[in-house]
Structure formats: C-alpha cells, structure tokens
Write a structure and sequence with these properties.
Blueprint (H helix, E strand, L loop, with lengths): L16 H5 L21 H4 L9 H26 L8 H22 L9 H6 L6 H24 L6 H14 L6 H5 L4 H37 L5 H24 L2 H10 L5 H10 L1
C-alpha cells in the first residue's frame, strides 16, 4: 500500500492558546449538541477517504466512531502524562475531563449503535506507573504539540466538521499550551543516566499507547460492522484495519513526534533519541 501523507502548513495556523480562545466555542453550556450528519475528526487524522469500498455514509460512520474513540484516548493520555502535567492549571485539566465525559454521554445518546472503547483508562495507565517523571514530562511535551497539530487539522476542515467536536479539538490545545512550551525539557539538569531512563520510559509509553490503539481499531471495526448490519468481506476488513492502524499511529504519536518544536526539544535533551522513529514516521506520516 502506498504511504498516505497529510501535510500541515509550515507556519503555525494558530500560535497561541489566546488566539484559539477567541474562537469562542461554548462547550460547557447547558446543552451539548453533536451533529451526527457531519464528520467529527479531520480527514488528516481519520483517514477514511482511502476506504473507497465503503459507502459514503459508512465512511462517515467510521469517522464518528473514531471521534468517540478519541475521547477515550485523550483521557488515557491525561493519565499517562500524570496530574498537573498537561501544561495548564488543575482547574483547566478538570474542565478537560468534564468535556470528555460530556461528549461521551452525548455520543452514546445520539449515535444509535454500541461503540466499545479501550479501558477503563486508569488500569491501562497503571501498567506504566513506574515511568520516570522525566519520561512523563517528555510525553507531556509530545501531547502539547500533538494537540497543536490537531488544531491545525481542525482549522483546515472547520467548515465540514461538527462544530462542537472542532471546538473540542481546539480546547485540547488551549488547555495544554504553556506560555513557554519546551522549558521543562530545556531546563532539566538530569544526569545522563536519568535522561537515558527517561527516553527509554518515553519509548515504552509510546509503545503502550500504540498497542492500545491497535486494540481500539479492532473495536472500531466491530462497531462499524454493527452499523452496517453485516460483516465486511475479508479483504476489505484487512485493508480497513491496516489504514486505521496507520491513522491511529499518526494521529496520536506521529503528529507529536514529528512536530519541529518537540523534535528540537527532545534532540537538545538527548541527541539521537528520535532515530528509531524516523523510518516509521516516513512510512506512516
């Protein structure tokens, strides 16, 4: 299969949390309404257009299913990064958690089919409880720039996406964008052995996340087949899983890993730390 590349603008579309806040999505209003007739996730992340053997409404359903899974994966990332490390005050983190819960309830109420997700996320994250604090700080920096890439994709697709979900993607960035992103990694005075342990821990966190997303892709497939009312043919099923494995990896690992600001911070901390990811990113990006 040919590599599917989704590029982002060289210049940042939005440069600060304050600029995103000016877009003024009221996600904590009295009623949260989702438009199930529009996609939830930008195509650069969902990658359903490549599945031409699916009918348009089935591709849209898979996009919505991916949106539902996004809520759980973001909650898992919050757990993996750890309390207070998302780049904002604790009040902001609690708002983010409440938004994820509200969107999950709205999805369950309105979608009309069972969509299972990995979890509960706390036990999944507990497998990585021994990760060094610096490893979690590296992942926190990764998630910050991943969220920025999600904002860029949402802005480029703003006219077609469900407005509430587009606003949620924006909010991820608002709550994670520190005023001086990268300072934790730039200012660390850790010993070389501690840095090596942190990089190894970060790799394990990424590997655990990748494994969880492969499981989620299987759950998404089951949900799609419930929506269709019948199983996909074997070849179409295999192709869908392959495309979605790639899409998940790019959405939550590749977007952060390849962001120039994150890459620069990590290379300053540990030159050569990204070398093992370069080939994967070239294929799956």
């Amino acid at each position: 299969m040919r590599s599917m590349t989704y590029s982002f603008p060289t210049a940042d579309v939005l440069t600060s949390a304050e600029e995103v806040a000016l877009l003024d999505w009221d996600l904590l209003g009295p009623v949260l309404r989702l438009d199930f007739g529009r996609p939830f996730m930008p195509e650069a992340l969902a990658r359903t257009a490549a599945l031409a053997f699916l009918a348009p409404e089935e591709r849209r359903a898979l996009n919505l299913i991916r949106g539902n899974a996004h809520l759980t994966i973001m909650a898992l990332l919050d757990e993996l990064v750890g309390p207070g490390r998302q780049g904002g005050p604790r009040a902001g983190v609690s708002v983010h958690g409440e938004l994820l819960r509200r969107f999950r309830r709205a999805f369950v109420d309105g979608f009309g089919a069972v969509c299972e997700t990995i979890g509960p996320v706390a036990p999944l994250a507990a497998h990585h409880a021994s990760a060094p604090p610096l490893a979690r700080a590296v992942l926190g920096e990764h998630v910050t720039w991943m969220a920025k890439r999600h904002v860029q994709a949402a802005v480029l697709n703003a006219r077609t996406l469900d407005p509430a979900f587009a606003g949620l993607l924006m909010q991820h960035w608002v709550e994670r964008a520190p005023r001086a992103a990268g300072t934790v990694l730039q200012a660390t005075e850790a010993a070389p052995s501690e840095i090596d342990a942190a990089i190894a821990g970060y790799r394990r966190l990424c590997a655990g996340l990748s494994e969880a997303m492969q499981t989620q892709a299987l759950l998404d497939m089951a949900a799609l087949e419930r929506v269709r009312g019948r199983a996909l043919p074997a070849e179409a099923r295999e192709q869908t899983l392959l495309v979605q494995h790639h899409a998940y990896w790019w959405s939550y690992i590749g977007t952060g890993l390849t962001h120039p600001r994150f890459a620069a911070s990590l290379r300053r901390l540990a030159p050569g730390a990204l070398s093992e990811f370069d080939g994967i990113a070239a294929v799956l990006g």
